[in-house]
Amino acid sequence: MNFEQTDEQRALQDSLSRSLKARYSFEQRRAYAASTVGHDPQTWAQLAEMGIAGLLISEEYGGIGGRVEDLVPAMEEMGAALSLEPTLAGVLAATALAEAASPEQCRRLLPEVAAGRKVLAWAHDEPEGRHAAWWVRTEARREGQSWVLNGVKSPVLNAPQAGFYVVSARAEGQPGDRHGCALFLVDASAPGVRVRPFRLVDDQLAGEIELTTAPGEPLGDVLNGQRAEHAVERAQGVGIAAICADMVGAMQSAYRLATAYLNTRQQFGRPIGHNQALRHRAADMLVSLELAKSMRTAAAAAMDSPHSAESARDVHRAKLSVARHARQLAQSAIQIHGGIGMTEEFAVGHYLRRIHVLDQLLGDADAHAARLAGLLGAA
Fold this sequence. Notes:
The chain is α+β, with helices and mostly antiparallel strands. The protein has three domains: 7-85 and 106-114, Butyryl-Coa Dehydrogenase, subunit A, domain 1 (Orthogonal Bundle); 120-222, Butyryl-CoA Dehydrogenase, subunit A, domain 2, CATH 2.40.110; 228-378, Butyryl-CoA Dehydrogenase, subunit A, domain 3 (Up-down Bundle), CATH 1.20.140.10. It is built from eleven helices and nine strands. Strands 1, 2, 3, 4, 5, 6 and 7 form a seven-stranded mixed beta sheet that branches. Strands 8-9 form a two-stranded antiparallel sheet. Strand 8 and strand 9 (270-271) form a beta hairpin. The radius of gyration is 21 Å and the shape is globular.
């Protein structure tokens, strides 16, 4: 496994870092979070122009055609900046759409997504699911030549910002079954679609989507359950790799803040970093960061080779390991800062909030430990 970035990946990360530093200072981010839009549309347009929205979309459909490993540096910068832009939601939805939709649908939809003009959200999780990967109660029913959906999806990242949702719904079977699901494209402005917006603890916008006989455009053949199953699995796997990279970016920023504070905060006439116990804690934080970097690379590599025997296990290992190390590092960074680390006006506490949210998305650490145990037991 190659842990070194390519020249192209380094160039993209450097460009993103400069752009986000110019537009996403901590105070600017607080202003975006307080706005009704919930992010900065100009930053999103700039990210789309740089190719972030179409990074994983095929060149045939107007994207860059990159690998999941190419997504890692971009998502790291999103985490480091505590970005509120709809990047992760778009990655999840676009991945599922590309895997499930027909070629005609891909030609019609994906170029708009790659250009940033069409913002998608991934609506798969349901309130009763509690981290279950296949808990889908939302019902898809045929009425004449059309399909209508009934059910509730929550939480849906960036639901208030999205113009369209990629929704999983059950054409047959029972909640929890792997088979029987299909994917649909739902217009956010369609009749029967109601969005209840809310903010997550890290200030990202999300929402609950209630579908009441809402029209849905089937992505591909509804009766081809195997293709929809593959699309959901692919979206979840790529999403986990992106989440791990986002968490690593948040970890790096929290670590930098903590070490800077150790070197500048004076106590009894010398920097508190001279305290041996605090130096040991900083060393433990660095170990956690380096381990997390290795695991996020393993997750991306697993999704670039999804047919290998170890790919599913590597993804679960990565989410489990990165989440636990990220929480540990962020908590240590706050403890180093003391009371100021818990204030709304100081950035380090916001990194812990970000990590908590990312840990809960697509299954928390405990859920992935259970899934990994199941895979190892079946081996």
